[in-house]
Amino acid sequence: MSYQSLFLYEKGNDVMYVLAIDGGGTKTTAVICDEKGQCFAQIETTRSNPTAMDQPYFEATIHSIMQSLQQQNPQLVAEVTSCFAGMAGVKELRAEGIVEAILRQYVCSSATITVDNDALIALYAGTLGKAGIVQIAGTGAITMGYDEQQRFYRVGGWGYLFDDEGSGYDLGVQLLKAVFQSYDGRASATVLTEAVLKHFSVDYVPQLIACVYGEEHPRTVIAPLSTYIFEAADNGDLIAKRIVEDACQNYYRAIKACYSHMEWTQEEVLVVLCGGVFTNENYFVPRLQAMAMEETLPFRFKTPDLPPIGGAVIAALQQINVQFYSSFVETFQKNYV
Prior knowledge:
There is one protein chain. This protein is of the alpha/beta class. It has 2 domains: 18-128 and 306-335, 2-Layer Sandwich (Nucleotidyltransferase, domain 5); 137-302, Nucleotidyltransferase, domain 5 (2-Layer Sandwich). It is built from 13 helices and 10 strands. It has helices spanning 55-72, 74-79, 96-104, 118-127, 168-184, 192-200, 208-212, 218-222, 227-234, 238-260, 285-294, 308-318, 328-335; strands at 18-23, 27-33, 39-46, 82-87, 112-116, 132-137, 141-146, 152-155, 269-274, 299-302. A 5-stranded mixed beta sheet has the order 3-2-1-4-5, with helices on both faces. Strand 7 (141-146) and strand 8 form a beta hairpin. Helix 1 packs parallel to helix 3 (96-104), helix 4 (118-127) packs across helix 12 (308-318) and helix 10 crosses helix 11. The protein is globular and about 65 Å long. Mean pLDDT is 91; it is low at 1-12.
């Protein structure tokens, strides 16, 4: 795909520095970048989802991020003109003001600051700032659309206790259910049992209880287990394959619901699959594309061109009406570690 037709070169020699933050349930990344895609300071640290941590810890995490960036390049932090933070959980707890107040302590008073759901930056990582739908499946899961009229619509992602279907946490829960049901004789044997016992370094299924119900948040413990589902599916495990198929059905149902509530005129609607679960894209892209073809819906499923933090950079540039270079994607991929 050529980006030359989509983006304009910035005229003149002035460089715009923006601060981008991607805050999730497992990790948080931040970068100071320009419109060329060059990175001047960056950090990766612990999770920053306020629904999974107390407020003092949440605030301390944001302060730590900014202090680290400041130590790396204090002059550029002061020159940042736009900040965009895409963060899981901030909308649910209405914590946008907390994040903005902290960022204001580090950047200049005239800087534009926006704090929004992390789904938006995941979308932009695949559409490069254009309309479309994003299906996120990381620690949590959410579906979000952004149509040509710049209207947003959200489906799902209402919390791990009763929603987030298809998330890493949800898949991990399905794995544990299968393991315990197999142990009881309520379900067929599965190679997932051996995988999860090895993961926790225990010998018997009942010992898993102490591993799961420990001091760490359940999502942190359970979500990483989802990776074993794909290994088991590769080995022909029927239960693992069923879990993957159920996840596809959940994604597709949410994507259809999102699409139906929005207005589209383009012949093709990009659907970006973003998050750790979709690292195994070969399980999902062909199946979801086949579902869309069966119902003649105009979806084109794809994985992102950039990591979500790159989508946050694009959002930060867009909110101050700065076009990024046609070589932005390639440059960012080379510069961002």
